[in-house]
Amino acid sequence: MLVRSEIEKWARTSATPGRVTERLADDAALLVSELVTNALMHAGTQIEVACGVETEPSPPGRSLSPDREQEDTGPVDVSAAVVEVTDRQPTGRVTGDSSARRGGRGLGLQIVGSLAESWGVTYRRTEKVVWFRLAVSEMVPKPSGSLSEAMHRELDAAEIFSSSPHADRRRTAEWADRGGAFLAEASELLSGQLDEDMVAALAGQLLVPRLADWCAVWLTTDDGAMRLSRAWHSDERRVDALRFALEPDPPPAGLRTVGIPWPWPESADLSGKGGSALAFSLVSGGTCLGSLVIGRDGPTEMTDSVARTVEDVARRVAQAVVTARQYTRQTSISRALQRRQLPPSLASLPGVETAIVYEPHARGQTVGGDFYDLFPLGRNRWSFLLGDVQGKDPEAMSVTGLTRHLVRLLAREGHGVESVLGRLNAAMAEEGAEAVAVGGESAQPRFLSLVYGEVEPDTKAGGARCSIASAGHPPPLKLSVEGDVVPVVDSQMLLGIDEGTEFVAFEFDLSPGETLLCVTDGVTERRSGQRQLDDDDGLAEILAGCVGMGAMAVAERVRQAAHDFGPEPVEDDLAILVLHAVVA
User: Fold this and answer.
1) Which end of the chain is more exposed for a tag (fewer CB within 10 A), N or C?
2) What is the pLDDT of residue 370?
3) 507 DSSP β-pair partners
4) How far apart are CA 575 and CA 508, in angstroms?
């Protein structure tokens, strides 16, 4: 292992007693294994580990390099081992539904820092790095001492499981002094977790190896059954076997307030002498949410104070599961509603490629204030739209769905481009007036920018005939096969401002090989300092470099250009709609 090899390299030239140096290597290796490997495996974080040693000041002329011969350098004292854990998780870019993403930057280091603090290890944490130090001077001078024993003395069941009444009383008193800090750590680590399986994983990290040799967490399902969410063992090689042994026989979903004995699985046996296990219900608000089972190897019993501490941990785990489930339920409802705001797919046009790129700005949402649609009208005609509602709140999101469905209804009743925009404008203005009448001056009417058009493909000669109007929206751009870029419409009044506004549609041909690009202001107003992307016809310049590309390639080129334009993250929804007339 990296840590052990680094310390052993120094041991060859160290004046520190071999026993102490060996213990230092054991301690550092265990620390990395427990704090880094186990914890970050659940967080799903990419990390980088670097290690080294600190030495006492050397006499003049003495080198500290372990690669020099000992007779040239003389012995040196190893005073501490230093390990640095750096978060290498890429920040990435969230597009659409981000629910599948787990872990992420910061979570792994949060676990490392919390566990290091509870074990009494000197550490320092920043946003991207956790640095911790093991000093020789702080070691308890026992021939068989190690960090694992220090952990056990601090929090492990090796000293809180006991068959000696005298030892029980002494260790109960010791645990009473430490239990408060442990429970505070448990609360901090579990609070804010929004995934119930992550809660179960963190529970295992809290309890193993400090309170038990292994831990398993069952959670209830929608039909009242129990599923094994996580199983963890101090010996990682036994995790799969432990899970296999426990999964077929879950604890009953009861409302017990104390732990009850649980059958000992042979796969968890480290000593060959069996062990003891206790099951604790996860109860919150009078409802059983699952069960937490912990086991300790050997003929030992749990002290009352530690049993009460585990009960407290179980209550905290149960409350964290409730919070995670409430979040999951609310997120599911929100996504179900959001799915109705946008079409599930774009309609296919003969001889015309279509592509959409859609990135809502709000984290965790699949829909924002931007919206789009492309649907058939019959008789070889299709309609498309790209719009942007004022604001980014849930109210704006609700307007997007209403607008899209209203446009579909009007278009399929035979209203042309100008009539659709006129009637939609009247509806928006009327709704704004009603909002002001009900809510007074504090009510804010909603304005809407929209590009709406009809497309009639030419199935014989190729290309398509287009009729488009823009209501306060960035004008669509047409790219010719020669690389010329021109706007195809004049922008008109925003929807919802003046009920009497009349709109004019612009007609043009989209010849084979030509491309029509429509974007929202999240693209054109993308900032880099004081500049915007569309200053000095910046968007037209980007489109001019897309000659010969298909619809999806053009959309992706524009999206990437918007992200690359400024060093800061995009601060608005992005929506890009591309129509490309295919060359026969």
Assistant:
1) C
2) 86
3) 467
4) 23
User: Six-digit token pair at 484?
Assistant: 């010329």
Q: List the one residue out of 339, 345, 337, 414 whose CA is nearest residue 373.
A: 345
Comparing C-alpha atoms, which of 314, 313, 311, 295 is closest to residue 245? 295
pLDDT at 428: 87
HEC string of 495-562 equals ECCCCCCCCCCEEEEECCCCEEEEECHHHHCCEECCEECCCCCHHHHHHHCCCCCCHHHHHHHHHHHH
pLDDT of residue 147: 35
- Nearest-angstrom CA–CA distance, 161 and 175: 11
Burial classification of residue 100, based on how many CB atoms lie within 10 Å of its CB (0-12 exposed, 13-18 middle, 19 or more buried)? exposed
**Six token digits for residue 105:** 């930057």
Nearest 5 degrees, angle CA 15-CA 18-CA 23?
120
Structure tokens at 504: 């004019």
Token pair listed for 578: 């591309």
- Residue 503 is predicted with a pLDDT of 95
| Contact between 489 and 531 (Cβ < 8 Å) | no
The DSSP bridge partners found for residue 226 are: 220
Q: Which of 19, 296, 330, 12 is nearest to 163 (CA)?
A: 296
Q: Give the pLDDT score at 24.
A: 64
Low-confidence ranges of the chain (pLDDT < 70): 1-47, 55-79, 87-128, 131-132, 134-180, 255-257, 267-273, 299-303, 337-341, 362-368, 391-398, 439-445
pLDDT at 22: 63
pLDDT for the residue numbered 472: 92
Measured between alpha carbons, how far is residue 181 from residues 119, 175, 187, 201 in Å? 10, 10, 10, 20
- Kindly report the number of other CB atoms within 10 A of residue 4's CB atom: 18
Q: Which of 306, 316, 77 is nearest to 184 (CA)?
A: 316
Measure the CA–CA gap between 404 and 365, rounded to whole angstroms: 18
In this structure, what are the phi and psi dihedrals at residue 24, rounded to the nearest 5 degrees?
-60, -40
DSSP class of residue 213?
A: S
Three-state DSSP state, 14? strand
Tokens of 458: 């030419």
Residue with tokens 């398509």: 464
CA angle 245, 250, 256 (to 5 degrees): 135
From CA 366, how far away is CA 99, in angstroms rounded?
10
Burial group, residue 264, by CB count within 10 angstroms (0-12, 13-18, 19+): middle
Enter the DSSP assignment of 76.
B
Nearest to 453 by CA among 354, 385, 517: 385
What pLDDT does 429 receive?
Answer: 87
Which pLDDT belongs to residue 499? 87
Beta bridge pairs of residue 80: 54, 135
Report residue 60 as tokens: 């003049």
In angstroms, the CA 264 to CA 274 distance is 7
Structure confidence by residue, pLDDT tens digits, 425-483: 998 888 877 777 776 665 666 788 999 999 999 988 899 999 999 999 999 999 999 99
